[in-house]
UniProtKB/TrEMBL annotation:
<feature type="domain" description="Glycosyltransferase subfamily 4-like N-terminal">
    <location>
        <begin position="36"/>
        <end position="224"/>
    </location>
</feature>
<dbReference type="GO" id="GO:0016757">
    <property type="term" value="F:glycosyltransferase activity"/>
</dbReference>
<dbReference type="InterPro" id="IPR050194">
    <property type="entry name" value="Glycosyltransferase_grp1"/>
</dbReference>
<dbReference type="Pfam" id="PF13579">
    <property type="entry name" value="Glyco_trans_4_4"/>
</dbReference>
<protein>
    <submittedName>
        <fullName>Lipopolysaccharide biosynthesis protein</fullName>
    </submittedName>
</protein>
<dbReference type="Pfam" id="PF00534">
    <property type="entry name" value="Glycos_transf_1"/>
</dbReference>
<feature type="domain" description="Glycosyl transferase family 1">
    <location>
        <begin position="242"/>
        <end position="407"/>
    </location>
</feature>
<dbReference type="InterPro" id="IPR001296">
    <property type="entry name" value="Glyco_trans_1"/>
</dbReference>
<dbReference type="InterPro" id="IPR028098">
    <property type="entry name" value="Glyco_trans_4-like_N"/>
</dbReference>
């Protein structure tokens, strides 16, 4: 085993990324860690990803293919096709439908247990200097903590969503006993982590409050996007041609249609603009709100809105290239200061973003600071329609806002910048853990 003093001065680290999601799964969490893993690897670090077999936003047949391939094995080792030097440890985990909320709650603990226990012997023989673990699920801190005990490797907890508070605000988590349980888990996770990264100042204040005001190990680390993979591109492309969008003014929403996302505000804005025959709304993605969204659009007899299933990571940039403006929407019940990753992707693609959410959060501040679009109050579909119409009538404004967003990403929120910052954070964690 490496001695801590030796590791401290090394620039080339052996880094373990722990995440419930990783490509080919489609979603912000999956893409975020893929981009980081690839950039850290480019910088000479040895990168290993500990995750499950694909289960989220993919055809169930993909999951079954993994099961057949694994046979009776508890994990499988693979390399991502376009990152052959990144090793991925995929453990066997159950496939659970997204609407099974109680089962998904139990799954949080099951994932944390199996991630470590199934891969333990393999990890025992691997060098691990430091771990970075994605939350949610918050329970994955247990996996990182056990790896720390096994390998004498500190772990950094990357808090993306403030669970359980976000679930409480949305009314998903109501049982007082479960709330108390998850709050205890949350506090334990924050206490045991060597460092904690959050993506905004208001998130930092929340985590500090859980730690009784102690913010010494809480760092703001804004999210990132691969500016080389998601960049400005031609509107006429395979996706826009396939879906007949090349001659349309396209307003897009691309991502998970989850409990947090406000789809109604998009559909009602589409209803306000239905007389404009060349304005079309596309909703690209799957999730628990998909069917109700389709029913609402049908009830309004809207011909200007299309629902398209989730697309693979490599197709996602084409969705943005096909768009003239793209949306990020959250319901008014989302009170935690979340910054949806799709905002960064939209800015990186060089198109305007309209954020429809509580204005006191950090995402509207980001859009304003970058001068990359507009932020309007949650649920305000009339203002959303007005802003879309403003951009429709002013191509120069669209181009200006798009350029501003792209410039801000390149200068502040690229995956290259993220890798540089995390290198320093990892070395800090190693020093603190001496």
């Amino acid at each position: 085993m490496e001695k801590r003093g030796e590791v401290k001065e090394k620039r080339k680290l052996s880094i373990l990324l722990i995440n419930n999601y990783f490509p080919p799964e489609i979603g912000a969490a999956s893409h975020l860690y893929f981009y980081l893993a690839r950039e850290l690897s480019k910088r000479g670090h040895e990168v290993t990803v500990l995750t499950g077999i694909p289960r989220y936003n993919i055809p169930k047949e993909t999951y079954n293919q993994y099961l057949r391939r694994m046979k009776n094995k508890k994990f499988v080792i693979e390399n991502i096709s376009d990152c052959a030097d990144i090793e991925v440890i995929r453990v066997r985990l159950p496939y659970i439908e997204r609407h099974q909320l109680l089962r998904r709650g139990v799954e949080h603990f099951e994932i944390a247990l199996k991630m470590f226990s199934y891969a333990k012997e393999y990890l025992r023989n691997k060098r691990v200097d430091v771990s970075l673990v994605y939350s949610p699920p918050i329970t994955l801190y247990k996996t990182a903590w056990k790896v720390k005990r096994l390998k004498d490797a500190p772990f950094v907890l990357n808090v993306q969503d403030l669970f359980p508070q976000a679930a409480i605000d949305l009314g998903i988590l109501k049982n007082p006993l479960l709330i108390r349980l998850f709050k205890q888990v949350e506090k334990k996770a924050y206490q045991l982590a060597d460092l904690i990264t959050v993506h905004s100042e208001r998130n930092k204040e929340f985590v500090k409050s859980v730690l009784n005001g102690d913010g010494r190990k809480v760092l703001v680390m804004e999210n990132w996007v691969d500016e080389n993979e998601i960049k400005p591109g031609d509107k006429i492309n395979d996706f826009s041609i396939k879906h007949g969008l090349t001659e349309k003014f396209v307003v897009s929403f691309a991502g998970t249609l989850g409990f947090s996302q406000d789809m109604e505000v998009i559909i009602r804005a589409a209803n306000e603009l239905k007389e404009y025959k060349d304005i079309v709304f596309i909703i690209v993605g799957n999730g628990v709100r998909l069917e109700e969204s389709k029913k609402l659009a049908e009830s309004l007899n809207l011909q200007n809105i299309r629902f398209i299933p989730s697309v693979p990571r490599e197709i996602y940039p084409l969705v943005l290239h096909s768009s003239d403006v793209s949306l990020a929407t959250l319901t008014k019940d989302v009170k935690t200061p979340v910054v949806p990753s799709k905002i960064l992707s939209i800015m990186s693609a060089g198109i305007p973003v309209i954020a429809v959410m509580n204005l006191e959060g950090d995402a509207p501040k980001l859009v304003e600071k970058a001068n990359a679009g507009f932020a309007i109050p949650a649920g305000d579909y009339k203002s959303l329609a007005e802003k879309i119409l403003l951009l429709y009538k002013n191509p120069e404004l669209r181009e200006s806002l798009g350029r501003n967003g792209r410039r801000y990403i390149e200068e502040n929120l690229s995956s290259r910048k993220a890798a540089e910052k995390y290198e320093k954070i990892f070395l800090d964690a190693l020093r603190r853990d001496k």
